[in-house]
């Protein structure tokens, strides 16, 4: 492919670290060097990984799948032993007995929980639906405050213990990162601006569903948090993000305040973080929560099924904005469930977050769909910093 990019962001590959750069930036400027230094080093490592990812736009050649993919995950966990060379030393393969190291076991179980949700709820065989082996390295680098999927494997830091704890602790973080692989192999939403925020949101949605499925929780039992248990005790906060109440996950003297908006009224225009992909994801996150809460029961059914249908249905464009995604979810709800509770819930959820869908059924029945000024199509956010 020799296509010349027409926009600076045209070929921005997804490289998501679960702790977004805006949080680490803030911590790295703290006057307490024992807090600032690990954040600074983490940002340096992340920048190096991001560059590497940009150079590796074509995934490694994978062996051709022969026959139907297995219903059994193929997991391998490595120990990076606090170095940066990946993957490190192999410490646990599929079906092997548990390690003495609980970090190894949590990574193994989290990969398994993600594999299980996709298989049992959506009949999807691993990330690529062809049984892709799942690989993870734990104990990456020193005091490393992050976790990521690099297109080939998961990588987990131990955290610095002051702001962040072991990144294998929240299973939704593992589900979030692996879902970036699912998105890359399906709708391949461009990692910039609204399509990037949708990419992020889809990872939060299915990350949360991995946890809900593992715990067999209903929508009203779930915490709807991303990264619960990850913040060290000294931090004023409960998680990295809240889908139920975006903007309320933390409010801390070191981390700052959770900047996520819940509705379009709070949409943040920024050039940082690929156009605020980890910030504006609060809006579609909240729409999913509202739809799932209104439908009730297990969120991986109903709302989860609708979102999965849109992600994998082949009609979602790589540069979709919120409005296009919303429209497709309403259509998918109708096509799978008819004009029932699911359709009404999805339609209403988008309206509540300020992304109203012009639905012929709603119009005919006189439903109150508020009209708001949409964000200009393809608007370039002002570049800051
Ligand atoms: Zn992400």
Describe the structure.
- The chain is an alpha/beta fold and 385 residues long.
- The protein has eleven helices and nine strands.
- The protein has helices at 21-28, 33-55, 102-122, 171-184, 193-215, 273-276, 282-295, 303-312, 322-337, 341-352, 360-364; strands at residues 75-79, 89-93, 134-138, 147-149, 154-156, 225-226, 241-242, 251-252, 256-257.
- A five-stranded mixed sheet has the order 2-1-3-5-4, covered by helices on one side.
- It is globular, with a radius of gyration of 20 Å.
- It starts with 20 loop residues before the first helix and ends in a 21-residue tail after the last helix.
- Residues 1-10 and 366-385 have low confidence and may be disordered.
- The site of zinc ion has 5 residues, from helix 4 and helix 5.
| Run of helices and strands | HHEEHEEEHHEEEEHHHHHH
CA-CA gap between termini:
32 Å
Question: Sheet with the most strands?
Answer: 5 strands, mixed
The distinct bound ligands, ions and cofactors come out as: zinc ion
Major β-sheet strand ordering: 2-1-3-5-4
* Share in β-strands: 5-15%
Poorly predicted runs: 1-10, 366-385
Instruction: Give me the Rg, rounded.
Output: 20 Å
Short description:
The chain has helices spanning 21-28, 33-55, 102-122, 171-184, 193-215, 273-276, 282-295, 303-312, 322-337, 341-352, 360-364; strands at 75-79, 89-93, 134-138, 147-149, 154-156, 225-226, 241-242, 251-252, 256-257.
